[in-house]
Design goal:
Immunoglobulin-like; 28 strands; eight-stranded mixed beta sheet; 2 domains
Length: 344
């Protein structure tokens, strides 16, 4: 009798909980229609929005937003960023009722990337043991960040001779990643520790550190006059405030067909971002305003021109030398640094 009583009370509690959860769930009364084909739309199109009234309610008005910003039901995408974005419709109906529903849309570029090749101008020695992760020129010197636990370093290098002028070893539990030099400071990432380091560019003395925000991993860094750009191994490139090093916004790297992930080491050249892709032999030329891949440089033959050995790894490392106005590329455990000219 006692066990029956306990069972009855338990059953009543379960029924009350299930009834409560059911009544708490709001019934979806509306959905958003778009002119995106299978959720995709080109940046040269106008996004057209309409509302599907599932229960034939009296609609008073609708407010549409794209990534939180109010838009009209016909929105020209020309100046918008590429990638996945959230559309919301706040519906005012039946006098005093409201409901907000959402949908996603993927904005693609409207043109395929141009294909570029290269001409080798010079070859320079490079440390064959360096697992290159970041490469950048500053005041005529080449700065390099290398990876692998127990092997990670920050270096100042004479690029013409390959001589290491200054060297900082990272602690064994840190896997070094990309770097950039801005305002006489070197910023260096680590891979999965969620932290980056700050150094004085003149002494290589560590002066601080910074934590990652929404980006969980550190891959590549570059900068322009106003922001530091950080890749995290996905299609996302984050814009960091150079004073606070917090992530203020992001772009998503896309072509006319879809996303391009594993964005790795990056370099700002002209008004574009040149980016290595991990395990690829090419460099993507990215529009930093919207994330569009506007070009691809095929560096495939270079790997066959370096010393072949068991630990030889992929192309990685791109740097623009403002003194020579040329581009330098290398790879992980390559014994050569190539100075190249890009040709269409």
């Amino acid at each position: 009798m006692k066990m029956l009583k306990v069972f009855t009370i338990t059953l009543l509690l379960i029924l009350q909980a299930s009834c409560g959860s059911k009544s708490d769930k709001e019934e979806i009364l509306f959905s958003i229609n778009t002119n995106a084909e299978k959720g995709n739309i080109s940046i040269n199109k106008t996004l057209e929005l309409s509302l599907r009234n599932l229960k034939n309610h009296t609609i008073d008005s609708v407010v549409y937003t794209l990534d939180g910003k109010t838009i009209q039901d016909n929105f020209n995408l020309k100046n918008h960023k590429l990638g996945k974005h959230t559309i919301e419709a706040t519906v005012f109906f039946d006098g005093d009722e409201t409901q907000t529903v959402s949908s996603t849309v993927t904005i693609l570029n409207n043109a395929s990337p141009k294909i570029y090749k290269y001409k080798i101008l010079n070859e320079y020695p490079h440390d064959i043991t360096s697992y290159t992760q970041g490469l950048e020129f500053h005041n005529g010197m080449l700065y390099e960040s290398t990876g692998q636990n127990g092997e990670s370093k920050l270096r100042e290098v004479d690029y013409k001779t390959g001589d290491v002028l200054k060297n900082v070893d990272l602690a064994d539990d840190y896997f070094g990643e990309g770097l950039t030099v801005m305002n006489d400071k070197i910023y260096q990432l680590t891979w999965r520790k969620g932290v980056g380091f700050v150094y004085d560019v003149n002494t290589l003395e560590k002066t601080g550190s910074f934590a990652y925000g929404k980006s969980k991993e550190g891959w590549g860094l570059t900068h322009n006059a106003t922001h530091i750009y950080k890749s995290d191994g996905t299609e996302d490139i984050w814009l960091l405030n150079p004073e606070t090093l917090t992530e203020e916004s992001k772009i998503q790297v896309y072509t006319h067909k879809g996303k391009i992930s594993q964005i790795n080491e990056m370099e700002w050249i002209g008004d574009k971002i040149y980016a290595n892709r991990y395990q690829k032999n090419g460099v993507a030329i990215i529009n930093p305003k919207n994330g569009a891949v506007e070009g691809v440089i095929d560096f495939t033959p270079l790997k066959d021109m370096v010393t072949q050995h068991d630990k030889l790894d992929v192309l990685n490392g791109i740097a623009f030398n403002p003194d020579t106005q040329t581009i330098f590329v290398t790879g992980k455990r390559w014994d050569k640094l190539f100075e190249v000219e890009i040709v269409e």
